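This part of the workshop introduces the protein records we will be handling. The question running through the whole workshop is how a given chain folds. To make this concrete, we reproduce a full record directly below:
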Amino acid sequence: MLAVMKCVVVLLAFVSLAWGQEQHCHCASIITTEEGAGLAYDLPPTEVQDCNNLEACELRCIDEYTVLTNDGDLDFVLENGETVGQVACNTLKPQGYDDVGPLEVFLYYNLCLGPWYYTGFKSQQKLCCVGGEHTPC
């Protein structure tokens, strides 16, 4: 389990560096497996004025993710016609996660390139991807 958590930290550190902005609130949902962690859903960062307001960043992430995913519903159909679960499978497939699940999807946040924190929010259902396609677990 310690190895998985280290992979989560490394994965989220790379996500932070990819954005290259210093003052932002960033939200990402991830899965964890015995082999490591995968980015399931990445929300665009939001500029902030205060890098000390962790609570505001956390609430923003939960609020935005709740609205976008209909409260973490992997079966919710987005405006593009795909389910939240299918978007997660599409995001995970290039990372080598063609077949995953059943796994919970956890929401994390980061403020101003600081450490990542778990929000306590997770998907309503467990995620299952078979050949990169979202399927019921």
